[in-house]
Amino acid sequence: MLDPSRYRALVHVVGGTLLVLAAIDVALRLLFGIAPPALLRASFHNTGNREIVAARVSGVLVDRGDAPLAVIVGSSSAADGLVSARLTAADPARRRWLNLARTGSSFDELGYAFGPLFASDLRADVVVVAIHTGWFAGKVVGDPTLDALMLPDLPRTSWLLYHRGTLQHLARSALAGARERLLLGLGVRFSDVYPPAAEPWSEREPPETWTHDLGPAVLELWRHKRWFDAAWFDAADDEVAAAAEVLAGCARVGRRVVVVLMPESSILRGEMPAAARAALDRALARLPHPPAVLDLRAAIPDAEFADHIHLGPPGARRLSDLLSGRIAEIAP
Predict the structure, then answer these.
(1) Does residue 264 sit in helix, strand or coil?
(2) Which residues are within 8 A (CB) of 173 and not within 5 positions of it... i.e. 6 or more apart?
(3) Of these four, 104, 274, 288, 294, which has the most CB atoms within 10 Å of its CB?
C-alpha cells in the first residue's frame, strides 16, 4: 500500500520550487513588463551572421597577404550594392577590399554581428561603415500600441515561458562572448577561437534580377517600423548609443573609418525626416574623433533600385566605381 508520508519531502520540494518560480515570474513581469525592450532587441540578434563574420575574419587573418586591407561593415544593401572586386581593381592605394556586410536593420544588430571583428587583431587601412539612417528607429520594441497588436496574448502568458527561447539564446550568446573574451585575453589566437572559413574572400553575387513590385510593401513595412516618424528618432537613445559603439569598434580595427550613407530612392529620401540624420550626428558627437561621413543617398537613379535601398547589378557596379573614387579622396 502506498505510504504518502514517504513522498512528503518530495512534495514539499516540488511545491516549494513551483512557488519560487511563480514568485520570480511575477517579479520579472512587475519589474520589466511582459515585453521588456532590451530583451526584445536582443531576440533579433542573428548568431548565424556573427558566426560567418567571425569565420571570415579568422580566415583573412590566416590568409592576409601583403596588400593593405579595406573592410566594409554593413547590411544587405552593402552586401549586394558594393562589389569588392571592382573596388579592389580601382583602388589607387592598392587595398584589397573585404565586404563583410550581412543582414539586419538596426545598429544593435550590427554591433552583435560584428563583435568578433571588433575583438580581433585584424588591422585595416580603412573601414567603411555602410548605413541607412532609418536604422536609428531600431526594431520598434517597447511601443505599447505595437506591442498590443503584435503580442495580444501576453497578459495571459508566463513571463519565463514566453521568453524561454530568447533567454536560452541570450545565455548561449553570453557564454560565447565570455569564452571569446577569456581565450583572447589569455593570448589564444583568434583563429583558434573561431575556426577560419575555407574561402574567406569569396562573396555572394548580387542577384541578376529583382522583383520590382517590392517597393510599396517595403515602404509600408518601414512606416510601421517608424522610419518616417521624427519624434521616434528624437528618442532613439539606445540606437544612438549602439551606433557610437559600432563606430568605436570600427576605429579599433581601422586606421581610418568612413561612414557611408548608402543610396536610397527619391521616394524614401522624401519620406525620411531630418531627425534621422540628426540621430547620426548625436552618435558621432559621442566619439572623441568622429569619422568622415560620405553622403551617397542621392547617388543612384531610381531605375536601378529594387526596393528603395537594394541595387541590382548595374547599380552595384555604378556605386562601387563611385565609392572607389570618393574613398580615394577621403582616405588616399
Answers:
(1) coil
(2) 42, 45, 47, 112
(3) 104
Distance of alpha carbon 277 from alpha carbon 296, whole angstroms: 13
Exposed, middle or buried, 302 (CB in 10 Å: 0-12/13-18/19+)? middle
How many structural domains are present in the chain?
A: 2
146: in domain: no
pLDDT, residue 166, reads 66
Distance CA 90, CA 86 (A): 6
The label of the residue with cell 502568458 reads 157
Ranges of residues in the chain whose predicted pLDDT is under 50: 1, 141-147, 149-150, 211-212
The pLDDT of residue 174: 76
| Domain final residue pick, 129, 163, 193 | 193
**Cα–Cα–Cα angle for 176, 116, 285, rounded to 5 degrees:** 120
Residue linked to cell 515585453:
35
Q: Can you give the length of the chain in residues?
A: 332
Q: Which residue has the cell 498590443?
A: 148
The CA distances from residue 267 to 60, 214, 218, 292, 305, in Å, are: 39, 13, 12, 26, 11
For residue 59, being part of any structural domain is answered with yes
Residues 189, 277 share a domain: no
- Give the per-residue pLDDT at 142: 46
Q: What are phi and psi of 130, to 5 degrees?
A: -95, 115
In a domain, 236, yes or no: yes
